[in-house]
Amino acid sequence: MLSPSFTPNPDAAFPGPLEARSPGPPPAVMLLLASLLLHCLPLAMADYDICKSWVTTDEGPSWEFYACQPKAMSMKDYVTVKVEPTGITCGDPPERFCTHENPYLCSDECDASNPDLAHPPRLMFDKEDEGLATYWQSVTWSRYPSPLEANITLSWNKSIELTDDIVVTFEYGRPTIMMLEKSLDNGRTWHPYQYYAEDCMEAFNMPPRRVRDLSSTSANRVVCTEEYSRWAGSKKEKHVRFEVRDRFAIFAGPDLRNLDNLYTRLESAKGLKEFFTATDLRMKLLRPALGGTYVQRENLYKYFYAISNIEVTGRCKCNLHANLCSYKEGGLQCECEHNTTGQDCGKCKKNFRTRSWRAGSYLPLPNGSPNACAAAGSAFGTTTTVAAPIVAAPAKISKLFQLKPKSPQVVPIEVFKDCECYGHSNRCSYIDFLNVVTCVSCKHNTRGQHCQHCRLGYYRNGSAELDDENVCIECNCNQIGSINDRCNETGHCECREGAAGPKCDDCLPSHYWRQGCFPNVCDDESLLCQNGGTCYQNQRCLCPSGYQGVLCDQPLCQGDEGQACDPASHAGPHLAVLLGSGLLLWLAGCLGY
Ligand SMILES: *[C@@H]1O[C@H](CO)[C@@H](O)[C@H](O)[C@H]1NC(C)=O
Ligand SMILES: *[C@@H]1O[C@H](CO)[C@@H](O)[C@H](O)[C@H]1NC(C)=O
Ligand SMILES: *[C@@H]1O[C@H](CO)[C@@H](O)[C@H](O)[C@H]1NC(C)=O
Ligand SMILES: *[C@@H]1O[C@H](CO)[C@@H](O)[C@H](O)[C@H]1NC(C)=O
Ligand SMILES: *[C@@H]1O[C@H](CO)[C@@H](O)[C@H](O)[C@H]1NC(C)=O
Ligand SMILES: [Ca+2]
């Protein structure tokens, strides 16, 4: 369920400026490691991205159904926002404000009627040019001591499941008191989700806790945290998080590799799945940043809220009955399979209500159970996947699977008269309850009732007839550059970020290839090496003596201790740290060496 959002933390995976600066092999090795890390990770994960497939087994071909879910995506693109109370957004009337860093230079202005100086709510969700923050801003605290409060409500009109941290970016300092609430019923009822304060005891009468200290029994506890409210300079600490990853890590391990355990827990631990589900989120901003001191009545123009981004990563909740979710008629809607229907695939389709509706299940691993709806007199809706042995699954769940309905009856008939398989098979079966004849064991990478389709990972050869042995061509997607090994009808693979070309084995001009595509460190247009440095293969600047830094923009070692000037002294320790962490061993294991 977590695939797209669960690339490792880029901060951890990519070398920082310090490493990038030292010449020679170490940065290259680290980039290689980083790219292997990115590439390797998905191998360990179940992904639940297919709802059904037409498969041929010894008993003959049939549909197999699987638990499935849509990909995680950036949910801010589908949100509607409400900011309360009315009049809380700055600029009407125009107002001057100052900042904590520069409290007596109050030259900044907010003016709602001037597009360049307005700060409307939509700027919390827009796409920003690099380095140019656009933000919603509140009025200043001119009415002190009555509180400066604002509610920001995000609504999807659809249940969504969080798959990564909610990250709220505050410009000019984070609130000293705020809370996050959620609703599961489109805003009719609300529940606290997390409290944030400089002093939890004072603000909410709650002891402070850190989410990463929670345990498997308290993973869905609502806590008050002091981690995101203290003053550390408005430029330095901008983010307020709701930690989804840390909570997942309790079950899946610190680098979220043991997702199987997470999926098992999500099915078995009461209320856990629901904890990450919401239709709406509401931020209550209760006291603005104070610059690390008390409110100074004589200058209230430096107290306000400003939010430049709210990142919510999640997926539509479709009860494991859909792998697609689309935006239609102003709302998100699951594209339900398994003969279910409804916005969340939360009920059986008409005429498919022989059994009562059930959500799909992540278990048994790795394909889960579709729990499809069934029509009267049909055995079809009841097929389950070939059950993998349940490892360490709770007793209750294993029991459920003993009740697994029987597979549909398939009567094989050799060399059936109406057998039409375009020469890719000479065996057919008659499927009793469907009253169809279907090919068995399609060859030449074909599949389908008449072997008329290409297997996953292959595409149709446009210049070959259906009965040609060459009718299906392997997609040959670059393993590192592409998202999966499938392609569309023209053989184009789906590329990871930065990759390009039909097989995803090229990089966009802004990226360079090194076991994957990485953003250019330098180039000839926008990322110029400074002070006469030259760009080496878009990967680093070769600096003239006397300069250092990623873009050779810093004089070398000025004011440094003598020993830090020797670049070689950086290389050793960094590699040693990586090696010491067992990363290499793990990488070797994951690559199967
Ligand atoms: C925020 O919402 C809560 C709950 O609806 C309400 O009681 C409170 O007055 C609102 N605050 C503001 C500033 O609108
Ligand atoms: C919410 O979604 C439902 C179902 O898609 C739709 O009928 C309804 O009009 C939507 N409501 C709003 C306020 O958009
Ligand atoms: C749903 O019903 C259709 C018949 O209308 C059938 O072809 C299909 O296989 C069913 N799907 C499932 C998952 O049972
Ligand atoms: C497509 O089919 C034609 C005709 O059989 C064959 O000559 C050609 O090699 C095939 N293309 C590929 C890429 O296999
Ligand atoms: C296949 O994908 C490529 C690249 O995304 C696109 O240009 C092309 O139109 C697609 N072809 C079809 C038939 O969808
Ligand atoms: Ca913005």
Automatic annotation (TrEMBL):
<dbReference type="GO" id="GO:0098552">
    <property type="term" value="C:side of membrane"/>
</dbReference>
<dbReference type="GO" id="GO:0007409">
    <property type="term" value="P:axonogenesis"/>
</dbReference>
<dbReference type="InterPro" id="IPR000742">
    <property type="entry name" value="EGF"/>
</dbReference>
<keyword id="KW-0449">Lipoprotein</keyword>
<keyword id="KW-0472">Membrane</keyword>
<dbReference type="GO" id="GO:0009888">
    <property type="term" value="P:tissue development"/>
</dbReference>
<dbReference type="Pfam" id="PF00055">
    <property type="entry name" value="Laminin_N"/>
</dbReference>
<comment type="function">
    <text>Involved in controlling patterning and neuronal circuit formation at the laminar, cellular, subcellular and synaptic levels. Promotes neurite outgrowth of both axons and dendrites.</text>
</comment>
<keyword id="KW-0336">GPI-anchor</keyword>
<protein>
    <submittedName>
        <fullName>Netrin-G2 isoform X6</fullName>
    </submittedName>
</protein>
<dbReference type="InterPro" id="IPR056863">
    <property type="entry name" value="LMN_ATRN_NET-like_EGF"/>
</dbReference>
<feature type="disulfide bond">
    <location>
        <begin position="543"/>
        <end position="552"/>
    </location>
</feature>
<dbReference type="InterPro" id="IPR008211">
    <property type="entry name" value="Laminin_N"/>
</dbReference>
<feature type="disulfide bond">
    <location>
        <begin position="495"/>
        <end position="504"/>
    </location>
</feature>
<dbReference type="GO" id="GO:0005886">
    <property type="term" value="C:plasma membrane"/>
</dbReference>
<keyword id="KW-0217">Developmental protein</keyword>
<keyword id="KW-0732">Signal</keyword>
<keyword id="KW-1015">Disulfide bond</keyword>
<dbReference type="Pfam" id="PF00053">
    <property type="entry name" value="EGF_laminin"/>
</dbReference>
<dbReference type="InterPro" id="IPR002049">
    <property type="entry name" value="LE_dom"/>
</dbReference>
<keyword id="KW-0221">Differentiation</keyword>
<keyword id="KW-0524">Neurogenesis</keyword>
<keyword id="KW-0325">Glycoprotein</keyword>
<feature type="domain" description="Laminin EGF-like">
    <location>
        <begin position="475"/>
        <end position="519"/>
    </location>
</feature>
<keyword id="KW-0424">Laminin EGF-like domain</keyword>
<feature type="region of interest" description="Disordered">
    <location>
        <begin position="1"/>
        <end position="20"/>
    </location>
</feature>
<dbReference type="InterPro" id="IPR050440">
    <property type="entry name" value="Laminin/Netrin_ECM"/>
</dbReference>
<feature type="domain" description="Laminin N-terminal">
    <location>
        <begin position="64"/>
        <end position="315"/>
    </location>
</feature>
<keyword id="KW-0677">Repeat</keyword>
<feature type="disulfide bond">
    <location>
        <begin position="475"/>
        <end position="487"/>
    </location>
</feature>
<dbReference type="Pfam" id="PF24973">
    <property type="entry name" value="EGF_LMN_ATRN"/>
</dbReference>
<feature type="domain" description="EGF-like">
    <location>
        <begin position="518"/>
        <end position="553"/>
    </location>
</feature>
<dbReference type="GO" id="GO:0009887">
    <property type="term" value="P:animal organ morphogenesis"/>
</dbReference>
<keyword id="KW-0245">EGF-like domain</keyword>
<keyword id="KW-1003">Cell membrane</keyword>
<feature type="signal peptide">
    <location>
        <begin position="1"/>
        <end position="46"/>
    </location>
</feature>
